[in-house]
Design a protein that fits this description.
The protein has 210 residues and is mainly α. It has two domains: 1-46, Homeodomain-like (Arc Repressor Mutant, subunit A, Orthogonal Bundle); 53-197, Tetracycline Repressor, domain 2. The protein has helices at 5-20, 27-34, 38-45, 48-71, 78-95, 97-107, 112-138, 147-163, 165-170, 179-197.
Length: 210
Amino acid sequence: MKKDSKDQILKAAILLFNSKGYDGTSIRDIASLAKVNSATIAYYFENKAGLLEYCFTHFFEQYIRKMEDAYQTIDKGAKECLKRVVAELLHFQSENYQLASFIYRELSIDSQVAREVMSTYSLKEKFYFQKIFERGFEWNEFRPHSIPYLLIQLKGLLMMPFMNTHYMREVLYVFPNEQFFEQKYLKEIYLWIDNTLTPSVKIKKEVVVK
């Protein structure tokens, strides 16, 4: 059995799940694209459901690890920490845009896997974002806001480019996997952080005595 067979299977599954959908993809399709036999897929993942679960775990384990590592900079300030977190998450999604697109599409379906993700990884994600927002309020770096509504806005900014990559490419002519997109879009998210969260500074006018 080839050493890289597992990676080949995973790459083939992500490509096919993303283009044909989970239900429209068979084990035979994946085996053919990965150039392995069905027994090899069964050896690593047991079946198609096991492969789907692995895709979710593979994505979110890395996603949460990025958040945890970036959160370690919280003592440098909530705003700087939040920018570090979104930069890491955007970069991770851009590098894995096909997997991100498939995962987010599957999360919109009420399934056992989606519910398990919500009860584990999504709650961890909420925990870290909430801690950053609360520190920002406490340290007067952020204006008071409703945290659930901040999360809706921030998650929308982070997820949208990867939820409908066809729309991005065919209508907007924007390619989420390109470095140019990542750099430009990150600046837009930073602007949202600066304009939405940061307290406005009142400029005192000096009275000039003639």
